[in-house]
Amino acid sequence: LAAEAQHFLKRPAVTGDGSAVAIYINVASPDELAEIDPAICDGIGLVRTELLFHGHHGLPDEEQQHGAYKRILDWAAGRPVIVRTLDAGGDKPIPGLTIEESNPFLGLRGLRLSLKRPEVFRTQLRALCRAAVAGELKIMLPMVTVPAELAEARAHLDAVVVELAQAGIAHRRPPLGIMVEVPSVAVTPERFAADFFSIGSNDLTQYVMAAARDLNSVAHLADTGNPAVLALITRVAAQGAARGIEVSLCGDAASDPALVPHLLRCGLRKLSAAPAAVGRVKAAIAGIDLRS
Ligand code: PEP
Ligand code: MG
C-alpha cells in the first residue's frame, strides 16, 4: 500500500468513475512545509495559527505574523491558502489569552475569544491583509455559532482594510469564510453569508455526538461516519452547491481512507488532509465508484 500511495502522491485525485476531487493540506507552521513538495496538493485548506501564539515572548506581533503568513504563501506558489484566525481555547489553551473554564469545549474559544480581544484579532487581520498581496490568501473564522459573530468579524476586517489604505500600506482584502463545526451552523448554513465554508469534522462530530474529542472513554461515539454527522455534512454540501459557495472539509475525517468514500457520497469534492495522508487518500479516491 505504501508504494501505491507513493504512485498517487503527485497526481490529481480522481475517483474510479472520473470525478475530480481537490486535495488540500492542513499545516500548523511554515517550518513544516520545508519537507513537503507543493506538487502533492491543490493548496492549503487549513493553516492552524495557534502554534504561532505559543512563543516564549508573549503573543506574536504584526511583523512576526506577516513573516510567517508570507512564507506559507511563497511556498504555495499561487495555490490557494486558507488561514484560520486564532482558534485558542477548547483543546488549545494559550497562556495569557485563554481563561480557565469548567467546560472549555463549550466556552470562550475560537472566534468567541477573538471578538472579546479585538486588539489581538485586529493585529492578526492586519498581518493577513498585508500578506495577501503575496498570493491567494483566504481568511477563515473558527467556531462561528451565530450570524452576528460573522458580521462583527467582517466589521473588524472592514476597519482594518480602511486603516491600511489610509496609512498607504500594501494590502489586499481576502475572502472571508467560516468553519462549519458547530451544529447551529451545520443545521442552518443558509443563515451565514460567508464567502466559503469549511467543515471542521472533529468539532462538529464531538458536538453532534456529545462525545469529547479528547476522551478515550467515549472515542467509539465520536464517529464522523455516524449517519447524523453525515446528514449534516450532506446538508452543508448541498447548501453550498445551491448558493455557489465553495465547501470543503478540513477535519481528520479527510485523512481517513475509510471515511473518504462517505464524504464524497455526501457531495464533497474538496478535502483538506494531513500532509502525510495525501498519498493514501488519493489512492482511496481512485478506488471509489460513485455510481454504485
Ligand atoms: C475541526 O474541528 O475539525 C478542525 C479542523 O479544527 P481543529 O481540529 O483545529 O479544531
Ligand atoms: Mg475545530
Describe the structure.
By secondary structure, the chain is α/β, with parallel strands linked by helices. It has ten helices and nine strands. It has helices spanning about 1-10, 60-75, 110-115, 120-130, 145-165, 185, 200-210, 225-245, 260-265, 280-285, and strands at about 15, 20-25, 45, 80-85, 135-140, 175-180, 195-200, 245-250, 270-275. Strands 1, 2, 3, 4, 5, 6, 7, 8 and 9 form a nine-stranded mixed β-sheet that branches. Strand 1 (about 15) and strand 2 (about 20-25) form a beta hairpin. Helix 2 (about 60-75) packs parallel to helix 4 (about 120-130). The longest helix has 20 residues, at about 145-165. It starts with a helix and ends in a 6-residue tail after the last helix. The model has no long low-confidence stretch (mean pLDDT about 95). The chain binds phosphoenolpyruvate and magnesium ion.
